[in-house]
């Protein structure tokens, strides 16, 4: 799976976004080590605190299917696209909540693919919160 193909799947997922309040649609495509792909979109709510981001939707779908929590199914990369009115030309970086969720299930070298390039989780979240 190439980065470009993963971005295309994220773009397809963004078409399912429920962004009635912000008009900002986001799609994510999560790739696992065993080649599975889990997609997600943002789902808004009139009570903004109940809104869920595309990245967390994809990760939670994967975890609910048994991935991310065992050695046989680890997360390799996530592609993220976002934009207003179907225009996805600007990079859409993950929010702090999504980065923290990624840090729960992914290592520092987890790949984050944006329209502007490829990054690692440690580029966005160099000092993650951890309970020890």
CATH class: Alpha Beta
Distance between the termini: 35 Å
Bin the strand percentage.
15-25%
Q: Largest beta sheet, briefly?
A: 5 strands, mixed
Description:
This protein is α+β, with helices and mostly antiparallel strands. The chain has one domain: 3-Layer(aba) Sandwich (Cytidine Deaminase, domain 2). The chain is built from 4 helices and 5 strands; from the N terminus they run αββαβαββα. The longest helix has 12 residues, at 3-14. The model has no long low-confidence stretch (mean pLDDT 94).
Topology:
Layout: H1 3-14, E1 24-32, E2 37-41, H2 54-64, E3 75-84, H3 96-105, E4 111-114, E5 117-120, H4 121-124
Parallel strand pairs: 3-4
Antiparallel strand pairs: 1-2, 1-3, 4-5
List keywords for this structure.
132 residues; 5 strands; 4 helices; Cytidine Deaminase, domain 2; alpha+beta
What is the gist of this entry?
With 132 residues, the protein is an alpha+beta fold.
């Amino acid at each position: 799976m190439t980065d470009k193909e993963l971005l295309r799947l994220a773009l397809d997922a963004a078409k399912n976004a429920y962004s009635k309040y912000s008009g900002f649609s986001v799609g994510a495509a999560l790739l696992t080590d065993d080649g599975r792909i889990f997609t997600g979109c943002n789902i808004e709510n009139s009570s903004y605190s109940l809104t869920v981001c595309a990245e967390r939707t994809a990760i939670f779908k994967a975890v609910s299917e048994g991935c991310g929590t065992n050695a046989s199914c680890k997360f390799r990369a996530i592609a993220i696209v976002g934009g207003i009115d179907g225009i996805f030309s600007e990079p859409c970086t993950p929010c702090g909540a999504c980065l923290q969720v990624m840090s729960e299930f992914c290592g520092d070298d987890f790949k984050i693919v944006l329209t502007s390039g490829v990054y690692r989780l440690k580029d966005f979240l160099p000092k993650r919160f951890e309970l020890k």
